Amino acid sequence: MTIPIEYYLILSGFMFLTGVVGVLTRRNAIVVFMSIELMLNSADLTFVAFSSYLGNSIGQVFVFFVMTVAAAEAAVGLAIIIAVFRNKKTVNIDEINILKW
Amino acid sequence: MELKYLFNSLPYIKPELILAASLVIIVVADLIITKKKELLHYIALAGIIAAGYFVLEQFSMNAFAFSSSGNKGMLTVDSMGAFFKGLVLTASFFVFLFSFSSNEINESRSKLGEYYALLFGMILGMFFMISASDLILVYVSMELVSLSSYVLAGITKQSLRNSEASLKYLIYGAVSSGIMLFGISLIFGITGSTNLYEINYILRSPETNRVILLLAGLLVFTGIGYKISAAPFHFWTPDVYEGAPITITAFLSVASKSAGFVLLIRFIKVAFIQNSLNGYWQLLPAVDWKTILLVLSILTMTLGNFAALWQDNLKRMLAYSSIAHAGYMLAAMAVLSNQGLIAILIYFAIYLFMNLGAFFVVMLISNKIGSEEIDNFDGLGYASPFLGVSFAIFLVSLTGLPPTAGFIGKLYIFIALVDAKMFLLSVIMVLNSVVSLYYYMRVLKHLFLRKAEGAPIELKVSFPNAVVLLMLVIPVLVLGLYFTPLVEFAKNSISVLGF
Amino acid sequence: MSLEITLFVIFALAAAVSAVMVVTRSNPVIAALFLVVNFGSLAGLFLTLHAQFIAVTEIIVYAGAIMVLFLFVIMLIKPENEQKFLAVNKKIKLTAVFLAALILVQIAYIILFANPSARLNPDLNASVQAGTIESIGTLIFTKYILPFEAAGYLLLAATIGALVLAKKKFE
Asked: Would you say residue B407 has pLDDT above 90?
């Protein structure tokens, strides 16, 4: 454990913000969704880093649950994207605008 | 933790067990019943009533469930939780009754089983959200609620509007829960625990780092603020409320919001409060929640009310009005006192009836005319005076004018604010109510003072629907005049375990 | 430079670069493949943190299950490529990137300022023990049994939800 925990935290902050930028700037719903996965993963990294440095398994238990949730969310999310695509023939969120944003 | 503790904890989650069982029963019944899908309505209602019976038991309970050594437990069973569980169940009861006659639901009858199964999933998640005292359970149950509601927002297939609402709900929801998760991970890093009570214990030591804690608190608030649709996390609300089937909209606006509020109350009261002095909660020096809540409540109510002014779609208007109401309740929360908490409870109980009522009337009318645009409602107040008058009562109550219940709700928030000497906030609240008068009355103007174009539409309210409507109108009127029992009830229900 | 540091640098660089690639590639398939690289390097980072179980599940669940689902959907609906990252709305995007960089500097400053490693005294044995499948499993099935069951219902709801949305065409 020669690496200070700060490095892990800064890396996870970087990934988190990359994900946020992706959500804000990308227009393809699937890529937006991938950026959300990046955000979740950066939180996972923080959890595991703290869990390891504290010698406390709870953080890794949390990551286990996050993975479950992420899998369920991906299934539902992609089903919704397919449903939208069937109606609209596009997944570009700028063109999905019957309702005002 | 031994098996014995598990069994000891089971009696505390009876309502949840009933809900979980009902979900499974509905899924199975949906497979068996092929012709008479209407039966599912009754099965769902029976599940709600059975769960309600066991919630009544919980009003006298005060216990931690699923605790192990050194841990204060996963669940807190207390009277505030029981109050909100009752509220969620009442809202679901009415929403199930609405579903009987909703055109949108009846048109996709083959999906009735899934509709109810997902609704039960949502209720189950809300129950866990209401009593969770561990951040892991908070996260999992919030996702249970969210995932079910993403699908429900898009469950009726006929319109593109639905699936679009679903997609927007999903993207906003997933982003905010991701942000919340990052906040939770920081809190875990600072305290080494996910239990709210342990977090509180650790935060009491003076060494905790306040800057990171402030950051983490704000990030977690993003997730909760999304659930209660507080500004600036409200962007999804109008789109989803407009696009989703109206029964789901009604359910989201009451039940989902109340579950989010309990989470907010518990998160702040358990984790960030030092002690209670004369009913006023003393914050830990860690995060200044009072200012945060104050600013957000002003922002939320002002934004909700002013945006509602320009809306021509009634569902959308009610969405913005529900944002404004969240702002009023956040104002009561910002007081951080027992009195503020009582005011929130009273307001929610009243808001349930008036908001569900308003949505019910809109649903009945749009069932007939197939539109929720305000211009199509011209002169409809005379087509069915009963509907028109009850809509008027609900809208007056939402504005907060006497002699309806909405006035009482606002009054108690006001008393709590004045008692805490937060005069500026109370003045802003009054001004906001004046603004809201304009758009609520505009609806009434269309209903009663405009002549309908074309042939007069005949609106008939069937007998069961009339009964449901009366069940919503009567509380709004009665609670406006005879409100002592409700106030007493709320006063007895504010005990949050641990303080 | 010890092995630990070398591995950390490699995996951290891979994670950071692939994260940027996911966000900037215009072809969604390439973005998805970079996301797999990201997950893989995260699993490597988890290994340097002694979290063996999580590292394996990261590969199985994320890189295996979730990414296959993503790629499957991408190939099913064949979305057209977006324009290059900076081709449209250049100003807005640059502002977003600039703001994110600013926030990152702030976060880094806060983290370095807080100096968390001064408060922590990592214990190698405890850390290895925390990452084993035994200790995680024990916690999940005792202390966290309730969230575990709730997660079961979450998966049930997700299954029902995905089915009801997907069955639209086959009626």
From this structure: yes
End-to-end CA, chain C: 63
How far apart are the C-alpha atoms of B441 and B436, rounded to whole Å? 8
CA-closest candidate to residue B249, choices B301, B171, B175, B318 = B318
Nearest-by-Cβ selection for C145 from B66, B121, B143: B66
Residue B281, strand partner residues: B276
Q: What is the pTM of this model?
A: 0.94
Supply the ipTM of this predicted assembly. Answer: 0.94
Is there a contact between A30 and C57 if contact means CB atoms under 8 Å apart? Answer: no
Chain C residue closest in CA terms to A54: C122
Residue-wise pLDDT for B7-27, tens only, equals: 888 888 899 999 999 999 999
Query: Do B124 and B24 contact (CB within 8 A), yes or no?
Result: no
For B193, which of A58, A100, A101 is closest by C-beta distance? A58
CB-neighbour burial class of residue B299 (10 A; exposed 0-12, middle 13-18, buried 19+): middle
**Is the Cα dihedral A57, A58, A62, A64 positive or negative?**
positive
Domain span including residue A41: 5-88
Amino acid, single-letter form, for residue B102: S
Q: Which of B139, B147, B178 sits opposite A36 (nearest CB)?
A: B178
Phi, psi of A36 (to 5 degrees): -65, -40
Residue A48 belongs to a domain: yes
Residue A97 forms contact with C (CB below 8 Å)? no
3-state secondary structure chain A: CCCCHHHHHHHHHHHHHHHHHHHHHCCEHHHHHHHHHHHHHHHHHHHHHHHHHHCCCHHHHHHHHHHHHHHHHHHHHHHHHHHHHHHHCCCECCCCCCCCC
The β-bridge partners of B275 are: B282
**Count of domains for chain A:** 1
Instruction: Give the containing element (helix H, strand E) for B274.
Output: strand B273-277
Interchain contact, A52 vs C49, CB within 8 Å:
yes
Distances from the Cα of A69 to the Cαs of B20, B48, B121, B147, in angstroms? Answer: 19, 26, 14, 9
C-alpha dist (Å) from residue B93 to A53, B44, B48, B80, B120? 48, 9, 7, 20, 11
CA-to-CA distance for B143 and C1, rounded, in angstroms? 43
* Range with lowest mean pLDDT among B100-104, B161-165, B302-306, B410-414: B161-165
Instruction: Please check whether residue A40 lies inside any domain of the structure.
Output: yes
pLDDT at res. B71: 58
Does residue B268 contact residue B108 with C-beta atoms inside 8 Å? no
If pLDDT is split at 50, 70 and 90, which confidence band does B43 have? very high
Inspect the interface and report whether the beta carbons of C103 and A14 lie closer than 8 Å: no
B177 CA: distance to closest CA in chain A (Å): 9
- Partner B contacted by C147 (CB < 8 A): yes
Is residue C163 less than 8 Å (CB to CB) from chain B?
yes
Cis ω before B403 (30° cut-off from 0):
yes
pLDDT in tens, A25-82: 888 889 999 999 999 999 999 999 999 988 889 999 999 999 999 999 999 999 888 8
C-alpha span between C62 and C43 (Å, rounded): 10
Segments making up each domain of chain C, as ranges: 1-86, 89-123, 132-171
Crossing angle of helices B405-419 and B423-444, rounded to 10°: 160
- CATH 1.20.120.1200: does it fit domain C1-86? yes
CA-nearest residue to B239 within chain A is A99
The verdict on a CB contact (< 8 Å) between B150 and A80 is yes
**CATH code at position A52:** 1.10.287.3510
User: Quick one: what percent of chain C has pLDDT higher than 90?
Assistant: 40
pLDDT of residue A101: 41
